[in-house]
């Protein structure tokens, strides 16, 4: 079952949740492509925009990448995956950044914008993200954790994960925007674009990323990181836009912990490069993060930032 | 059997949740009211609450947790988490893991530390974390008041783990203490290896004023510690991040890829390790001070 919260309902009824049935969609509808060849030569791989107006940073980052129309065709259905893991400061996607992304999608002529998640409504409410979704005309598609709501997707090249189980509702969309916050993680030291995709994979499948009986041992971190990289072969976001404005660098991913405020939004298609850049914001090297190395081995992108075209501005 | 009661879930399950009696109500926490229902998670259901980050709690020894949000008349929001860990040592260890090196110690419970927008407290086998959800506008007096109310309800306290007393006191930053119960916590503090090479029973780390960190790894028996130290020496040699390896039969010296010196030796049931700037005299002096504390402490144990 999918709990869908539409704007009018949210505003009229407060936080009550409406129930609608999830409609089965096409099995593996490809997300909108990236017409790289049609882009101007100066479009970078990664856009980084800093400044204290986080919403403006998000708008500008997408503009630098060639504009929202590059990613969101007119009349498309857009799925957005924000991070609402915790309501502790510096652990969830900024509502201000989300608001800008929703407005961009509307501007591009999207006919439907859905925030997809199996996280609890409480998380959406306490982070302020539910309010923004309602105000901007987007819907919350909150999916029950029942395995029946997840579609098996083989990962033939997976080294630790041979089958992902992706939210079925995701495949009813034309565009998938990955909208994580970057932050610390007590297991693999880093969370960014790639790890955020655990938010569309079934919780039961995610548990296989961790060692049985929940004890840490010598291979636990490698297994977790390899599983995440494998998962990223099952789904390719149309656009990744990372909230690197304010985030925790200790006690991640849940917090509370030490917060730094780079005030940046980082956007692009190359998940490996984006993650390597975000890791560098608090002194980590992309090549030191197993997940990022595994991502490059899967040809998901490049972690050597010297080989990546980065355009960074401050507004 | 693990069970979880979620916010919004009706009925007796919520009312009967263990730890419920530890939650202050409106009459006690003046000016504040509970916001929404509490949440309760036990055993592996912690993964539902702390999705993707519960492993560290299990490494220290997790039992169950209750969570309750509060709101004041001005709209300020606090989130209270009370973790029941498996032992006082588990609670103390998790407390040190979550504490900030820049926090301010408060005289509350066994240990208490106030950071910018959050507070951690441990007492007996309980770990309390209170977080201001609005970060910069967090009412710090509310944080402390709530901590005080909860602390009174938690019963008797525990003693600091004995490992803490083995660290030399002079120059030690008490806010920097980290107690380890497994490799994940150690990895988060300094990733010596990706593998669990030290395989210790317990460990502790403290930072000193001279910008050195002292690590002490404890083993069940002297032979175990000796064997593990031999293996550690081999691993240092094979790990690409380490170089300039010297071994004089007692003391191991290496340098990491950031130019920091690592000095280590085995003594009784312990491996002692100093990490810091590449100043041989300073590092060796700290190591010597640590060694002096061990034999006396060891005989008492």
Count of individual beta strands of chain B? 15
| Shape, principal axes of CA atoms of chain A | globular
Oligomer: heterodimer
Shape of chain B: elongated
Strand order of the largest sheet of chain B: 1-2-3-4-8-7-6-5
Distance between the termini of chain A: 43 Å
Helix content of chain B: 25-40%
Quick structural summary:
The complex is a heterodimer of chains A (315) and B (301). Chain A is α/β, with parallel strands linked by helices and 315 residues long. In chain A, 28% of the residues lie in helices and 20% in strands.
Description:
The complex is a heterodimer of chains A (315) and B (301). Chain A contains 10 helices and 14 strands. Chain A has helices at 7-13, 54-64, 95-108, 121-127, 129-135, 193-196, 203-207, 220-234, 271-280, 290-297; strands spanning 2-5, 19-20, 46-50, 77-82, 112-117, 139-143, 150-154, 163-167, 175-179, 239-244, 247-248, 259-260, 264-268, 310-314. In chain A, strands 2-1-6-5-4-9-10-13-3-14 form a 10-stranded mixed β-sheet, sandwiched between helices. Chain A is globular, with a radius of gyration of 18 Å. By secondary structure, chain B is an alpha+beta fold. Chain B has helices at 12-15, 46-49, 55-60, 88-98, 140-153, 183-189, 222-238, 280-300, and strands spanning 4-5, 32-42, 62-72, 77-85, 104-105, 111-114, 118-123, 126-132, 172-180, 202-208, 212-218, 243-247, 252-255, 261-267, 270-276. In chain B, the strands form 2 sheets. Chain B has an 8-stranded antiparallel β-sheet with strand order 1-2-3-4-8-7-6-5. Chain B has a 7-stranded antiparallel β-sheet with strand order 9-10-11-15-14-13-12, with helices on both faces. Mean pLDDT of chain B is 89; it is low at 1-13 and 296-301. Classes of the chains: A alpha/beta (315), B alpha+beta (301). Chain A binds chain B through residues 85-90, 119-122, 126, 185-187, 189, 195, 198, 203, 206-207, 210, 214-222, 246, 250-259, 290, and chain B through 6-8, 36, 44, 47-48, 50-56, 58-59, 69, 77, 79, 97-98, 100, 102, 115-118, 129, 131-135, 182-184, 187-188, 191, 194-196.
């Amino acid at each position: 079952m999918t709990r869908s919260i539409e704007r009018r309902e949210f505003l009229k009824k407060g936080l009550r949740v409406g129930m609608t049935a999830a409609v089965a969609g096409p099995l593996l509808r490809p997300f909108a492509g990236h017409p790289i060849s049609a882009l101007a030569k100066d479009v970078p791989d990664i856009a980084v925009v800093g400044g204290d107006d986080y919403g403006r940073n998000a708008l500008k980052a997408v503009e630098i990448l060639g504009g929202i129309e590059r990613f969101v065709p007119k009349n498309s259905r857009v799925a957005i995956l924000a991070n609402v893991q915790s309501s502790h400061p510096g652990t969830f996607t900024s509502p201000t950044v989300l608001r800008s992304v929703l407005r961009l999608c509307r501007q591009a002529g999207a006919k439907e914008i859905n925030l997809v998640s199996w996280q609890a409504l409480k998380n959406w409410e306490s982070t302020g993200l539910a309010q923004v979704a309602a105000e901007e005309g987007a819907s919350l598609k909150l999916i029950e954790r029942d395995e029946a709501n997840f579609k098996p997707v083989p990962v033939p090249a997976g080294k630790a994960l041979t089958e992902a189980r992706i939210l079925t509702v995701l495949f009813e969309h034309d565009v998938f925007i990955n909208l994580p916050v970057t932050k610390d993680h007590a297991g693999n030291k880093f969370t960014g674009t790639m790890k955020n995709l655990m938010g569309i994979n079934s919780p039961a499948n995610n548990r296989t990323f961790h060692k049985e009986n929940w004890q840490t041992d010598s291979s636990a971190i490698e297994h977790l990181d390899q599983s995440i990289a494998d998962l990223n072969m099952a789904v390719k976001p149309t656009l990744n836009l990372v909230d690197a404005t304010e985030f925790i660098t200790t006690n991640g991913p849940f917090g509370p912990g030490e917060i730094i405020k780079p005030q940046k939004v980082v956007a692009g298609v190359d998940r490996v490069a984006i993650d390597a850049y975000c890791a560098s914001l608090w002194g980590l090297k992309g090549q030191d993060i197993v997940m990022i190395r595994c991502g490059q081995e899967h040809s998901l992108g490049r972690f050597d930032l010297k080989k990546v075209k980065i355009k960074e501005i401050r507004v | 059997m693990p069970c979880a009661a979620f916010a919004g879930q009706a009925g007796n399950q919520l009312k009967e949740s263990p730890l419920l009696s530890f939650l202050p109500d409106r009459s006690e926490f003046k000016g504040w009211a509970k916001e929404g229902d509490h949440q309760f998670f036990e055993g592996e259901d912690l993964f539902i609450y702390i999705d993707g980050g519960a492993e560290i709690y299990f490494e220290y020894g997790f039992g169950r947790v209750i969570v309750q949000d509060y709101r004041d008349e001005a709209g300020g929001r606090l989130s209270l988490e009370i973790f029941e860990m498996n032992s006082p040592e588990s609670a103390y260890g998790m407390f040190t893991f979550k504490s900030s090196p820049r926090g301010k110690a408060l005289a509350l419970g066994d240990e208490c530390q106030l950071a910018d927008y959050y507070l951690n407290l441990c007492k007996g086998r309980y770990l309390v974390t209170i977080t201001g959800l609005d970060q910069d506008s967090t009412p710090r007096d509310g944080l402390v008041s709530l901590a005080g109310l909860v602390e009174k309800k938690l019963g008797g306290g525990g003693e600091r783990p004995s490992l803490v007393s083995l660290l030399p006191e002079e120059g030690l930053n008490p806010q920097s203490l980290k107690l380890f119960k497994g490799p994940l916590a150690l990895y988060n503090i300094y990733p010596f290896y990706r593998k669990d090479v030290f395989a210790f029973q317990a460990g502790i780390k403290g930072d000193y004023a001279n910008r050195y960190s002292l690590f002490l790894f404890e083993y069940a028996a002297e032979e175990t510690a000796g064997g593990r130290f031999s293996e550690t020496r081999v691993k240092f040699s094979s790990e690409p991040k380490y170089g300039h390896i010297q071994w004089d039969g007692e003391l191991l010296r290496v340098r990491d890829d950031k130019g920091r010196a690592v000095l280590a030796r085995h003594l009784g049931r312990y491996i002692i390790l100093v990490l810091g700037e590449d100043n041989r005299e300073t590092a060796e002096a700290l190591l010597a001070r640590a060694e002096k504390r061990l034999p006396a402490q060891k005989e008492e144990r």
